[in-house]
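Worked Example 4.2. Consider the chain below.
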Amino acid sequence: MARRPSEVPAKTVRELNAGIREASNLAESLAIDFKKLAKAALPDHANAIAKALGDEHAVTKRMRIVGGVLVERASKEDLAVMCSHPSDTVRSWGCYAIGLGAGTLKTKLGRLKSLADDPHYGVREWVWLAVRDDIVADPTRAITLLEPWARARSANVRRFASEATRPRGVWCTHIRELRDDPQPGLAILEPLRAAPEKYVQDSVANWLNDAAKDRPDWVVGVTDRWLSESPGAATARIVRRARRSL
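Applying the procedure from the previous section yields the following structure tokens:
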């Protein structure tokens, strides 16, 4: 398995750039030439995307750039194509086209829910990043809207609720209100404190680890209570990982 973009086989890169295969790891994702992929997947918008991208190399910035172009140019038909495209990167562009576009957070989440449950791990990361600005702008509203997601049947949807509202998170703007007072986040975290899936457990633990950097006292209190009230292996694992920075 390639560990760096330069190690990805040439045939794989060609198929990734043609939009006919998904990336199987981060190295493959980073090996994709967005300009070539746009030409293959979205030919009507390829020139505009190429011009906007310029020589930008940071992948998070490139995703936002493409999303910004598509907000201005993509039709409903284009969005439908993107959100069901064989390429995970193109589906992720669809996430950004929705997340950066107009509309309420409620409307955006409704349109993004199927992508939050996408089978590809990469799409599931980009989808919450795509709507993070709206969550940062109004975390109280976001928690209210995502609280039912924390009880969803799908582990991917439940994980979205936790990951999207992390006080610090990865590659994203911090939520100052939750750094100062993480208590409102319990509306999402409580239903997940004994989640059986490690994918969800890790997100909950990371949420609490974020909070511990500003409010260690609060995290100790919550996790002590969880251990008392939910004395199972899943909760114990969450607590252990949540306290790793204390």
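The CA atoms of residues 78 and 104 lie 21 Å apart. The chain has 17 helices and no strands. Compare this with Example 4.1 before moving on.
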